[in-house]
Amino acid sequence: MSGLVVHDVGVRFGGLVALESVSFEVAEGTVTGVIGPNGAGKTTLFNVISGFVKPSNGSLTWEGKPFQPRPDQLVRHGMTRTLQGVGLFTHLTAAENVMVGAATSRKAGFGSALLGLPRSDRDERRLRTEAIEWLERLGAADVADRVAGTLAYPVQKRVALARALISRPRLLMLDEPAGGLGAEDLGPLAELIRALPREWESPCSVMLVEHHMDLVMQVCDKVVVLDFGKCVAQGTPAEVQADPAVAAAYLGAEVPEESALTEDEEATS
Ligand SMILES: Nc1ncnc2c1ncn2[C@@H]1O[C@H](COP(=O)(O)OP(=O)(O)OP(=O)(O)O)[C@@H](O)[C@H]1O
């Protein structure tokens, strides 16, 4: 087991228990979904793994070693996280945004240029070529030189994904990648997520927090279900769909099929 192990993690915010004894594994080369009703603790879990929230108890293991995450060290440890929105620099071009994603893991280049530091032009040219290659893989090379703030939202999301992937993470944390996308964008997104651990030159495991149930069930090898901070079920998509505890977590109703859950969730988001 050389992926991520979350062991007995608990988080308290004052008197509020946001996570309690949460344990699961993200096996190398797999897609793991984290689902649960609003306030279940999904974002808190991502915040623990990326070092923004210190757990009150429990531990993490990453690639076989004890792991105490720090946000500024994530890329160095081979992890990246996308944000719920897109979080692009709206005044920079798409290619420049992707270059920023690499800058944190390189010695010279666009990051130093942004900060006004001396840099190597050759490094910057190489970085730009690489950024455009990632945009190409995500079907967004045609917007490389357009200012990010002017791009359609689904295209911005692709650029944000290219920015996360250019650092070649071994674990990619996707926070609501389907949020704000139309039905026509979901098929290509699902294909892309499935391809990440298997087909790309630098394969990575994926953790996915997502309300869009169709997407979760389509792309995940394993699904972890949180409710009021507790892990109430985990297993294959079919197993969690059949689990009565999951039905109980979602409004005490049967686990809705297809997009019905998404509509409920979106209404309460
Ligand atoms: N910094 C914080 N301080 C206090 N309480 C917090 C903090 N962050 C989260 N919480 C609380 O912890 C609980 C879990 O929140 P969290 O955002 O992790 O849930 P979630 O499953 O991501 O919800 P959503 O689907 O609505 O994004 C909620 O009750 C929330 O109000």
* Global morphology: globular
Kindly name the structural category: alpha/beta
CATH architecture heading of the largest domain: 3-Layer(aba) Sandwich
Distance between the termini: 35 Å
Full CATH superfamily name of the largest domain: P-loop containing nucleotide triphosphate hydrolases
Could you explain how this protein is built, in words?
InterPro entries: AAA+_ATPase (IPR003593), ABC_AA/LPS_Transport (IPR051120), ABC_transporter-like_ATP-bd (IPR003439), BCA_ABC_TP_C (IPR032823), P-loop_NTPase (IPR027417). Residues 4-253 form the ABC transporter domain. Keywords: ATP-binding, Nucleotide-binding, Transport. This protein has 269 residues and is α/β, with parallel strands linked by helices. The chain has two domains: 1-78 and 170-269, P-loop containing nucleotide triphosphate hydrolases (Rossmann fold), CATH 3.40.50; 87-167, no CATH class. 35% of the residues lie in helices and 22% in strands. The protein is built from ten helices and ten strands. It has helices at 42-49, 94-103, 110-114, 121-137, 153-165, 183-195, 213-219, 237-242, 244-249, 260-268, and strands at residues 4-13, 16-26, 31-35, 57-62, 65-66, 79-81, 171-175, 205-209, 222-227, 230-235. The strands form two sheets. Strands 6-7-8-3-9-10 form a six-stranded mixed sheet, sandwiched between helices. β9 and β10 (230-235) form a beta hairpin. α2 packs across α4 (121-137), α2 packs parallel to α5 (153-165) and α4 (121-137) crosses α5. The longest helix is centred in the middle third of the chain and has 17 residues, at 121-137. The protein is globular. The two termini are 35 Å apart. The model is unreliable at 253-269 (pLDDT under 50).
